[in-house]
């Protein structure tokens, strides 16, 4: 069993030491149950992927599984609401490599193995799973319907994105109706380190309910989940 333990500001586990303590508890429980367990302490400083909410996360997954095709189609230019979730892809590949290492019980170039599977087999297998669950196996990311009510949250000023709070983003997504409203949630347009200008889009809130969207907008304005900073850290006089 592989356990992902994100740590950092805005994550459920605030620091590495607490993450290690929790990881050791998982490993001890696994040992008592006869389950080989490994825990990965991962960067929880900002959300992984662009979508938060069932439909928006499903979009991310389909793009990730077919990212070479979407990259060749220049999806980010042609579909303003779509971004290739490279952070999700990289984290998934790293976790898959760890699972292979545990399964074979020896060191190896398993990241390359995971990359090859992603390029050649992963999307086909996902389509088989979708078909087995009586869904449309030919569905594409752009076919997934999201809430008809939406609001674009924009940057108030120019600067670099310093921090995106997982906790605050999650609260706003829940206020929009997610996960019970499968079409509701948040789609991030930026990542930590990006440079944005005043009025650039930071994220879009979606909901099937106009009332819940209004509540989510109010919460977003109050919580300010995306921190944008300039070059000055502190002033000393």
UniProtKB/TrEMBL annotation:
It holds the Pfam family PYNP_C. GO terms for biological process: pyrimidine nucleobase metabolic process; pyrimidine nucleoside metabolic process. One of its GO terms (molecular function) is thymidine phosphorylase activity. GO terms for cellular component: cytosol. InterPro entries: Nuc_phospho_transferase, PYNP-like_C_sf, PYNP_C, Thymidine/pyrmidine_PPase. Its EC number is 2.4.2.4. This is Putative thymidine phosphorylase. It comes from groundwater metagenome.
């Amino acid at each position: 069993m592989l356990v992902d333990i994100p740590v950092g500001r805005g994550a459920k586990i605030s620091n590495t030491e607490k993450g290690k303590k929790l990881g050791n508890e998982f490993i001890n429980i696994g040992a008592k149950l006869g389950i080989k367990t490994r825990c990965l302490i991962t960067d929880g400083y900002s959300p992984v992927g662009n979508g938060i909410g069932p439909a928006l996360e499903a979009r991310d997954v389909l793009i990730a599984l077919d990212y070479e095709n979407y990259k060749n189609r220049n999806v980010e230019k042609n579909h303003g609401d779509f971004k290739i979730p490279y952070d999700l892809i990289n984290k998934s590949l790293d976790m898959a490599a760890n699972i292979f290492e545990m399964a074979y019980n020896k060191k190896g170039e398993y990241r390359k193995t995971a990359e090859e599977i992603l390029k050649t087999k992963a999307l086909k297998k996902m389509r088989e799973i979708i078909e087995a669950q009586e869904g449309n196996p030919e569905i594409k990311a752009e076919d997934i319907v999201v809430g008809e009510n939406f609001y674009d949250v924009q940057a108030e000023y120019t600067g670099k994105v310093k921090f995106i709070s997982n906790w605050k983003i999650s609260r706003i997504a829940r206020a929009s109706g997610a996960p019970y409203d499968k079409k509701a949630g948040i789609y991030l347009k930026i990542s930590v380190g990006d440079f944005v200008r005043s009025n650039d889009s930071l994220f879009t809130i979606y909901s099937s309910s106009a009332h819940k969207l209004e509540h989510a907008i109010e919460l977003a304005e109050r919580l300010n989940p995306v921190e944008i900073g300039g070059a000055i850290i502190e002033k000393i006089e």
